[in-house]
Records
---
Amino acid sequence: MKIICVGRNYVEHARELQNAIPSVPLIFMKPATALLKDGKPFYHPDFSNNIHFELELVLKISKNGKTIREQFASDYYEEIGLGIDFTARDLQDELKSKGHPWELAKAFDNAACIGGFIPKSQINLKSIQFSLSKNGKIVQSGDSADMIFSFDNLIHYVSQYITLQKGDLIFTGTPAGVGKVEVGDHFVGCIGDVALLDCKIR
Ligand code: ZN
């Protein structure tokens, strides 16, 4: 399986990092070794002093597809969940300033934390409200209605280049409010009132 991620998919988040608003989706990937699941803790790596949390809606791809048309894109996912796209912001800034790929800042082990998934039939896809709390206080809240590129846009766009396979995950971008993680932090992610993701930083 592979993990496909979308950068700058919410206007307010692009602004908070002083990035331009993209006219096409900004895509990057994480390897399967980046997956952190089953409520396991995230061990803070020592190559970074500024690991950020980014809460994102995550699509689980349910069948294989290539060059998927937008009007059929919703047939390719049945479940939606939450993930944290852990990012070594200091390393990313350094790589960006040199014009180099971001890979090491995004694709390191355990950098793709996921929680549980819920069937898409149980949610209003046009407006999915989701939030992340850190030590009991809400730090990020988002609404899929504010995405620059919708789930269906993203599936169409990515599948022109990369075949989607059953079991792949798409991290669909983070809303504003990203910030630094500290050892001892406890993160809980919710869709509506349902807690789907729980991650402690060790
Ligand atoms: Zn992200």
Note: Residues 3-200 form a domain with the Fumarylacetoacetate hydrolase; domain 2 fold (CATH 3.90.850.10).
---
Amino acid sequence: MSRLEITALAKGFGPVTALDAVDLTVPNGTLLAVLGPSGCGKTTLLRCVAGFERPDSGVITIDGEVVASGTSHTPPHRRRIAIVPQEGALFPHLSVRGNVAYGLGRAERRTSRVAEVLEMVGLAGYGDRMPHQLSGGQQQRVALARALAPRPSLVLLDEPFSALDAGLRTDLRRDVRAALRAADATGVLVTHDQAEALSMADAIAVMRAGRVLQFGPPADVYRAPADPWIATFLGEATLIEATLRDGRADTALGTVEVPSAPPGTVTALLMIRPEQIHPGPGPSSHAPAKALVESLDFYGPHTLLTLRLSDGTQTQAQVQGPHPLPIGTTTPIHIKGPTHTWLPT
Ligand code: ATP
């Protein structure tokens, strides 16, 4: 499969700047998730890569071959790109086998390729079913099998799970990721779902207002977001201003170690995730911070506590399993482990 490179890509629609100097690289066989709020330019980016939109400037190359630049534009059907849309858009009058074979040449239809990709997406034995005899999740699996069958250079996935309910999405994400790996496919997934991007992709690009704000492995972007907007867009986060002295700060949430801080005294915005905040006094020799439990949201494997600190700051703590503290209780809290995220103010 192929390497995708996007350099200084720009696209406007009248007064709207949909893409502004976008640079991205997707190495062979990896999946990039493009994540951002509605209107940030995700679909326009995907459409430029697919060839449905002509960029105003910038260059797109697939395996070193320029497919779009200020002076050239390879038409979509010559880019060897497959698209998995939001809802499968299967041909209703064709069986699963017919849908998957659709993009294959006559010779390849007679090979085992259709059975092979149906197996990859977990639908071995479903070839004779009609689309209306499948669940929504199964239809999306067929759409993926159809996309993978002709061995495209690139697979573009445009919010492929948005029409499915939450429970189904988790299983499907895992299976789609496995199928893309089995096919050694290079992919770009467009989504506004943070969990989807973090759980599926090898790298994520966080977009806002036509620009890529941060690009990197999911765990790095989650742990060390480049700015406060990304910190809160990627999950719950409490941002507190603190004075760091030799890599340590006393905050309204308790004492925290910041090993990555420079020596000396600096003022910084610290990012603390709910999974770092724990009810209870903690090991610190300092008096623990105290917080009022305002609400409890039980999710099964974990509970999210919404807490109010004495200075009025609201924060959240995530604890494993159910939590016995009733709403209205005041509890000591502490920050467990160091924080690696500090943003200079
Ligand atoms: P969503 O998540 O809602 O699909 P998005 O991140 O995919 O949003 P785009 O569809 O790429 O965003 O749109 C980026 C910006 O460009 C928006 O302001 C949108 O209104 C504008 N836009 C997109 N297509 C066109 C068009 N054909 N004509 C005019 N404006 C457009």
Note: Residues 13, 16, 18, 36, 38-44, 192 surround adenosine-5'-triphosphate (CB under 6 Å).
---
Amino acid sequence: MSRYHEVYQSWCDDPIGFWGKAAAEIDWAEPWTSVFNPDGGIYGLWFEGAQCNTCYNCLDRHVENGRGDQAALIYDSPITDTKRTLTYSQLLDEVATLAGALQTQGIEKGDRVILYLPMIPEAAVAMLACARIGAVHSVVFGGFAAAELATRIDDARPKAILTASCGIEPNRIVEYKPLLDEAVNLATHKPDFCVVFQRSQSVAELTPGRDFDWGEFVSEAQPADCVMVAATDPLYILYTSGTTGVPKGVVRDNGGHMVALKWTMKNIYGMDPGDIYWAASDVGWVVGHSYIVYAPLLQGCTTILFEGKPVGTPDAGTFWRVISEHGVAAMFTAPTAFRAIKKTDPDGKFIKNYDLSKFRTLFLAGERADTDTIQWAERHLGVPVLDHWWQTETGWAIAANPVGLGTLPVKYGSPTVAMPGYDVRVVDEAGIEVSDGDIGVIVVKLPLPPGCLPSLWQNDERFRESYLETFEGYYETSDAGYKDEDGYLYIMARTDDIINVAGHRLSTGGMEEVLSSHPDVAECAVIGKADALKGQVPLGFIVINAGVNRPTEEIEQECVKLVRQKIGPVAAFKLAIVVTGLPKTRSGKILRGTMRCIADNESYKMPATIEDASVLDAISDTLKNRGLVA
Ligand code: COA
Ligand code: AMP
């Protein structure tokens, strides 16, 4: 029998008491003056007045309590054929030393440090080192191009950038140094210094006067003590796609974040100290922040940092090898990773080669989990496969099936129920709640729980406009869906122009901005087309300027190249198609929804306000001729 309903009700009855109790799991240097101050910040502030340190709670206190010899982090990198285990004591030493080196170079509480790092232990070390001295880290995913890094440099204005010589993808080595140089060149703000971790796969040439070699940087450093910060001080900024090409700087605080994540490890994921936990994501995403680094360490678990892919490194059995070799109890990944495995090994033959007896639960998130994939995983792994729903902004699950409270019955297509902290409503455009089963916009009644973003980095106005203005008193998730009679949520689609490609959140608006910058493009529209592996892939429609006589294929290829150059390979933008016109309403609004239906071969209702319906037929014919629609 699950305790979920009882626990959720206890939160409804006394939210302050609920989080005050959860906060007892964290070590504080100074207690709070209020668990929640509704008059602080934009919608209130959690644990105001408290002083704490996130790194202390992740590392020092475990070492002080006798956990020093336990593995804190296992680096498993099939792509480089490397494995390395760091105990809590060893990780603490590395973190304190890097923190000391950063302090020596003038990094202080509140300074920003950008981390542009691949999936190597140094990424986690750098995050924790910043946390230790109160510096605010901002991790930038390695699959983004220099221009994206430059935008983040100009917004975060970092004193330092920590990077590596390269990242490694199955088909190529990604040299980070040229990307870093180009980004620093493009950005108006310049960092005081950079630190480069040299990997043997490719050694970078350092820029004299600006760059330190990582090894030398830490070699003489004295370990730094923890610097106490206010619970409400920022721990990190993580940029995520907004509706334009300018990403949103999601801010995470220290105190509320620790309280919420620690609560989730036991109650949602069912993890005890000493358990082995694996989030197969990347430190560049929120899942990596919350569940590769902070939450497992707060809970005294061992976390796995995996540098590889679900297939091809070396085969579709990699996940099972990692689970069996390290005794993983729970794994968290995106459905797309399982679709990739299922496609390569449909009968799950690789699974039979490994002992998965310690494996208890598989968690999925990041995109809609399709029933086929869930059932395939259930059948072959023989453990509960639980979908849960959240966003970069929330930092932890809005809806989940909480293992620690007792798993609820699984309903395929639903990430299950709202977690304590979240009063989730489904409303119509006027903000009126719709009936069970009816689709509407999903909103969360304010205040958001601890761990969610208090604002966007130095942009309260954009925070209010993006999330709080449409429905007064509510946070707008920008997801649409419905609730059933048992309170189960179903997340169906985004209400904005964000698409989800292989579990990565991308802005079609951002891609349109890039396409429009091509000199021959008159106008364009990008939509997310359904894809059996990645969930969605971007598809760009371009109309070329009158009088341009170059071959259209040439322009299409240039457009594809341009998006890769400006946004990065992670955009997975491979399809740009020249069309004669875009469907529009009489007021000039591009009918992207109708184009998506055509691209996905779905039936659609002819919009009454369409200016010229023949454009739709032309698009349909073009897609058929290209073999993109049957
Ligand atoms: N640095 C540089 N390039 C990167 C990168 C990184 N860290 N991560 C991905 N890329 C590149 C890939 O090499 C690929 O480039 P290509 O166009 O030259 O082939 C491109 O970005 C697209 O990557 P991706 O969408 O990941 O596709 P893929 O074909 O390489 O792999 C999957 C497909 C399904 C195996 C892969 O997406 C995957 O493992 N997904 C898991 C999802 C995940 O971790 N989500 C995080 C949220 S939980
Ligand atoms: P990100 O901020 O990158 O984590 O992306 C968040 C978005 O991914 C959400 O707003 C949803 O649109 C989508 N998403 C995340 N998890 C799920 C899920 N379990 N089911 C459906 N959509 C999801």
Note: The mean pLDDT is 97.
